[in-house]
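Thread: GntR family transcriptional regulator, structure

OP (GT): Posting the sequence first so everyone is looking at the same thing. Length is 241 residues per the record. Can we get the structure tokens written out before standup tomorrow? I want them in the notebook alongside the other entries.
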Amino acid sequence: MTEKQFKSPLLEGNGARSLTEATYARLRSDILACVLAPGARLNVKELSQSLGSNPAAVREALSRLTAEDLVIIEPQKGFLIAPMSIADLTDLTSVRIELDVNVLRRSIAAGNLEWEARVVARWHQLSRTPMSTSDAAKKDEWERAHSAFHQALMSACSSTWLVRLRRMLYDQYARYRTLSVSFALADRDLENEHQALKDAALARDVTRAAELLTAHLQKTADVVLDTIRRDEAVLAWFADL
């Protein structure tokens, strides 16, 4: 059955996007949001049915996600969601802090008035976007605004490779950040953290901005660790516990 013949709800509202692309986007979103649990085995036929897709599109999507290290292939077992672990979180946090601070320093040094306008606009959007732990649509909207704000801060960095690597690490961190956001309303003042970052960047205070970003990213990791201790269901996701 060809993609043109296959009538799938995944294609609704997607215009010219192919079924494969729509399947990939849906699977990727579900993995990053931990809708598909870390370490879970993936059955191509079952995914095809649940997504309203077809096996060929699912296999292609899973192959792309394997290249992004979000899905792994094990002999005799097939596709699995990449596991989460404390060791991975610790390593990822350390590398991300080092890289993000480097990119932020370069961005502040090179930023012009257009960059300042982007930072202010994205911060304003984020500050006006409510965060909800119970409403999936609002949670997704906040996540997009959050990503856009951090991207704006980094957007004046001229190194294509640094920006590309930063994006990859940001996406890898998304699953852990999902756990952080679930408890963020009670455990931290994210609005104040983001405003302080914005103010330091616009003041061209590189040292202060680097300190704030380091604390911001480390706090996320700390909240994830606290979440693991609170929630037995989440605890089961971590391969080294």
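GT: Both are above now. Quick notes for whoever picks this up: The beta strands are 41-42, 71-74, 78-81. Residues 180 and 224 are 5 Å apart (CA to CA).
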